[in-house]
Amino acid sequence: MKQNNEVKKNLLEEQVINIGRVTKVTKGGRHFRFSATVVVGNRKGLVGIGTGKANEVPEAIKKAIQAANKNVCKVSLIDNRTICHEATAKVGRAVVLIKPAKEGNGIIAGGAARAVIELAGIKDIVSKSLGSNTKVNVAKATLEALKMQRTPAKIAALRGKKVEEL
Fold first, then answer.
1. 34 DSSP β-pair partners
2. How many domains are there within the chain?
3. Is residue 133 situated within a structural domain?
4. Is 65 exposed, middle or buried (0-12, 13-18, 19+ CB in 10 A)?
5. Is the residue at 165 inside a domain?
6. Are 67 and 36 in contact (CB under 8 A)?
7. Looking at residue 134, what is its pLDDT?
8. Could you say which of 73, 95, 119 is where a domain stops?
9. Disulfide check for 17: which of 37, 53, 75, 97 has CB 3.0–4.6 Å away?
10. Full domain range(s) for residue 11
């Protein structure tokens, strides 16, 4: 089990979305810490998001990568290039809309949503960020929208039918 996790971690790519400076004001002065948000994925359907805080940036990134590796989830793809259907997800005030696209369209998304989509391995998709554009919340909302995807096989199994009957 432990060896399997190590192999999985080695195959995942990381991309830093956001690094922020957090200030705690005490009577002795200001204490600065850094928070980092990282997306990990293998470009074949596995993707995860994690955040970490530490006194220095490299430590914060390392903690964020560890948190992201714990939160990796599987995204269902069609033809290893696009998603099954349209979906909308909301985290905080950030709302993200994702739609499947024709072959050759590419990734039409910006910022944090693009990082999540690329590391998930999706090649053709249209994404629109509505509401707030906070990087962390947009990334989390994109991941939630990707988790909502249901393949025809999943829907058929839920209904107790075959895929051909749908």
1. 21, 54
2. 2
3. yes
4. buried
5. no
6. no
7. 92
8. 73
9. 37
10. 2-73
**Residue 143 domain flag:** yes
Instruction: Find residue 29's DSSP bridge partners.
Output: 26
For residue 114, give every residue at least 6 positions away whose Cβ sits within 8 Å of its Cβ, in sequence order, or none: 107, 127
| Strand stretches in the chain, DSSP E | 13-26, 29-41, 46-54, 73-74, 87-91, 94-100, 107-108, 125-131
- Which residue in the block uniquely carries the two structure tokens 């096989």? 153
CATH number of the CATH domain containing 66? 3.30.160.20
d(CA 161, CA 28): 67
Residue type, 84: C
Half-sphere exposure of 120 (CA within 13 A, CB side): 30
Note the residue count of the chain. 166
Give pLDDT, residue 9: 55
End-to-end CA distance of the chain: 38
User: Tokens 């002065």 identify what position?
Assistant: 29
- Say if 97 falls within a structural domain: yes
**Which pLDDT value is given to residue 96?**
94
Q: Looking at the structure, do residues 83 and 99 belong to the same domain, yes or no?
A: yes
Mean pLDDT by 10 residues, the chain (166 residues): 54 92 94 95 92 96 95 88 91 94 91 92 92 92 91 82 74
Distance (Å) of CA 165 to CA 136, 156, 161: 41, 8, 6
CATH number of the domain that residue 89 is part of: 3.30.230.10
43 and 81 in one domain? no
